[in-house]
Amino acid sequence: MNIAPKYDQLDPIECLELHLKEVVLKNYCGGHRLYMDFAKFFLLNAKVLRKMEIGARYSYKSNCNIDDWMCYLRRQLQVENRASKDASVEVKVNKFTRHVRTHDLSV
């Protein structure tokens, strides 16, 4: 069940329309629907967004490799449909080690 209200373009949110240029999400868990919906809301509605940075958690225990997970994340976030076509979407993956891997989903 989707309980999140949809953004009504006829009753615009000024911040999304004119001001929000950067979003940083830390400890993002893309496997959970609420996290996904939260990030997707900003991508699909922030018209002047320049950069979204996602600090994601990835576990080696998952059933897919990290490249497959990045493809899944890109599809779920609907990056190609973002409101600001100039926005870059960068995912910094922490694999529960000191190693951090960075991916640019916007290309």
Q: What structural class do the secondary elements suggest?
A: alpha/beta
N- to C-terminal distance: 32 Å
Helix-strand string: HEHEHEE
* Main sheet summary: 4 strands, mixed
- State the total count of DSSP E strands: 4
Percentage of residues in DSSP E strands: 15-25%
Number of domains: 1
Shape: elongated
Nutshell version of this structure?
Pfam families: FBD. By secondary structure, this protein is of the alpha/beta class.
Write the layout of secondary structure elements.
Elements: H1 14-19, E1 22-28, H2 33-45, E2 51-57, H3 66-77, E3 88-94, E4 100-104
Parallel strand pairs: 1-2, 2-3
Antiparallel strand pairs: 3-4
Organism: Triticum urartu
InterPro entries: F-box_dom-containing, FBD
Protein name: FBD domain-containing protein
Please provide a written account of the structure.
With 107 residues, the protein is α/β, with parallel strands linked by helices. It has one domain. 29% of the residues lie in helices and 24% in strands. The protein has a 4-stranded mixed beta sheet, with helices on one face. The chain is elongated, with a radius of gyration of 14 Å. The model has no long low-confidence stretch (mean pLDDT 79).
